[in-house]
Amino acid sequence: MIGRDLLAMEDLERSDIERILETATHMQEVGRRDVKKVPTLRGRTLVNLFFEPSTRTRTSFEIAGKRLSADVVNFSVSGSSLKKAETIVDTAKTLDAMDPDAVVVRHAVAGVPKRLADALEAPVINAGDGAHEHPTQALLDLFTVWEEKGRLDGLTVTIVGDIVHSRVARSNLYGFTKMGAEVRLAAPPTMLPACVEVLGVKAFSSLREALDGADVVMVLRIQQERLQGAFFPSIREYAATFGVDREKLRYAKDDVIVMHPGPVNRGVELAHDLADERPSVILDQVRNGVAVRMAVLYLFAGRRPPHREG
Amino acid sequence: MATSRRLWIHGGRVLDPSTGRDEIADLLLEDGRIAAVEPSLRVEDATGLDASGCWVAPGLVDLHTHLREPGAEYKEDIASGGRAAAAGGFSAVVCMANTDPVNDDPSVTDYILDRARQESPVRVHPIAAATQGLAGKVMSEMAGLVEAGAVAFSDDGKTIMDSRVMRRVLEYSRLVSRPIVTHAEDRTLVGDGVVNEGPASTRLGLPANPAAAETIQVSRDLVLAELAGAHLHVAHVSSAGAVEAIRRARERGVHVTAEVTPHHLTLTDAATLGYDTNTKMAPPLRSEADVRACREALADGTLDAIATDHAPHAVHEKDVEFTAAPPGVIGLETAVGVTLDLVRAGDLAPLEWVRRLSTNPARILALPGGTLAQGGPADVVVIDPERRWRYDPAKGWSKSRNSPWAGQELTGCVVATVVGGRLVYQVDRGVLLP
């Protein structure tokens, strides 16, 4: 049964994921109406608590909340609690005193949503924490693939890029493996986390091998600042070895789809033409993001849970 | 600390590694000294302490404590840290130099010892900084600091990364015949790492600190100690690689001693999976294999001592993002209950457990104590190895609460602590002196 908070795909059961995706299909229908609004969360207050700038995810949650008639409040905080001399719990309690029905949290450090969930009365929805998890991204990716392929079980999903720093990769590898897909990771050895095989995935240093027979290719954003940490030598070499283009896609299945959590570095991790048209489904991901987040808000903020224990 | 009162501790199992004694016996303490140890002593006119069912051992000696005074008295001070030590069965603690101001000047050493005489129920032995301001550049005035009472030198909390400075510090330490205590982590390899690199760091998504960072730095320091012909003491060993490096160096005659903490002996990096900042240490909690290697090395003598690395931090400092929280946990009050697990698991016989918490630490820094031999200082701990108790840091003697064992039931309890013949702690009465 779905828990109180949505912190990590690692915590979800397969049946939880199925329920969220089923709910999202109904929400998707709402988004196709002329008047894209239902009264489901009328009188409920959602707080978007963003400690890290993110226009895309925040906007998606905001639109999702508004389509459900919730009152959505954006609360942006910059800097760490160290600089503010305020602890995370202080911030959480301040918010809690305003009685929100759910708090959506984004933070640059892994584990902050968990710490907030331990301290808050309101349910906490993780909108991305450091290199830990980004569960709603994984849910919208699952939804998009499900819509495209009609199934998740038995698919081969290849995630390409900076895995070690990616919350998107972590949430997706849990999500897809729980749904019965085979997940492969392709990255330079410097960008693979230690002992990643314990998570039930296969790691490859050869993109070609990783793409062989893939149904889905998920391309991650590469960040220039990783040059400083000696993770890779140059954008040029990265694009040549791990950049996905039509040539490399020939190793995948004929009906492969290409995904990207955005924003895309065109010509770096993804060829320019692939960013805009089939087989890429990037804008479908964004569109589905609203429906999936509506489902999440409905399931996690649409009830008054009993007070936390202990 | 001397007193004319006589204390008679009777009926307990006396464990004295310095003489190999392990038998039911009585102990008579007089004028701050051990006056007699014999089975069934006949004693009149003395305060009695019934130790039936308990272990009677030389007072524990902690090689690695942060008392935070001067400068961070909101975390701990010499009085509160001394009380926590007494409650934990320690008759002496060795306090680290990373105070504010840093203990790199004889006046600071004087201040610490003066405060300890007034405020602490247990003996306090300061470690002075190896380099001025812990900056790793200019060495501190070792001769003057030893004269003031410093017992060793360390930049603990930081690693002296400049190999030339480390070499000179080791060489110069021979002038005062005192060891250099190394906090050995290659900072360039650690980078921003906060948890051990492995499955846990991968699942947590937190920056990883590989065990290799410790192995590299311990290996370098061992090579430099060999070159310098100096005594190196390795603080808080946490990895199988470092253990192996120490073992090999000792085989080839390097003068090295080493300690391991209760947390590195009993907890793995799996404990960090809930993002509890009270599981954040430096070096970090390691893998199962590392814990096993440390336990084996403690048993076979490669690691000489258990030391707490008692590192108090205020709640508001720990209640932040995992990456922003200061590393370290308190450990004085839980060391006995936590490490008796090694005796129950068969890693250490009771006498060997006492050796690693008392006799060896005293020997490494040539401190008084660590023995119950007649004529020695009357520093004694009485332990009930079976008594269960629940640890609540909020009710503890330390000012801080940053413990990974908060709320846990521990088996093995300090019943009484005696320093210089004076009863300073009794479990049902609390800290009694000063």
Structure, described:
The complex is a heterodimer of chains A (310) and B (434). With 310 residues, chain A is of the alpha/beta class. Helix content of chain A is 37%, strand content 14%. In chain A, the strands form 2 sheets. Chain A has a 5-stranded parallel sheet. Chain A has a 4-stranded parallel sheet with strand order 2-1-3-4, with helices on both faces. In chain A, helix 7 (167-178) links the parallel strand 5 and strand 6 (182-186). Helix content of chain B is 30%, strand content 24%. Chain B has helices spanning 78-87, 106-119, 142-148, 163-176, 187-190, 199-204, 212-228, 240-251, 262-266, 288-300, 315-318, 335-344, 350-364, and strands spanning 6-16, 21-30, 33-38, 47-50, 55-58, 60-65, 90-95, 123-128, 152-154, 180-182, 195-196, 208-209, 232-234, 256-260, 305-306, 380-390, 409-419, 422-426, 430-431. In chain B, the strands form 3 sheets. In chain B, strands 1, 2, 3, 4, 5, 16, 17, 18 and 19 form a 9-stranded mixed sheet that branches. In chain B, strands 6-7-8-9-10-13-14-15 form an 8-stranded parallel sheet. A two-stranded parallel sheet of chain B has the order 11-12. The relative contact order of chain B is 0.17. The chains are: A alpha/beta (310), B alpha/beta (434).
Total E-strand runs of chain B: 19
How large is the radius of gyration of chain A? Answer: 19 Å
* Helicity of chain B, as a percent range: 25-40%
Terminal-residue CA separation of chain B? 10 Å
Mean pLDDT of chain A: 93
Strand share of the residues of chain B?
Answer: 15-25%
User: What's the N-to-C terminus distance of chain A?
Assistant: 20 Å
The number of helical runs of chain B is 13
Instruction: Write down how many β-strands of chain A occur, each being a DSSP E stretch of 2 or more residues.
Output: 9
Note the overall shape of chain A: globular
Helix vs. strand class of chain A: alpha/beta
Low-confidence stretches of chain B: none
Main beta sheet of chain A: strand number and arrangement?
A: 5 strands, parallel
Q: In percent terms, what proportion of residues of chain A is strand? A: 5-15%
- Low-confidence parts of chain A, pLDDT < 50 over ≥5 residues? none
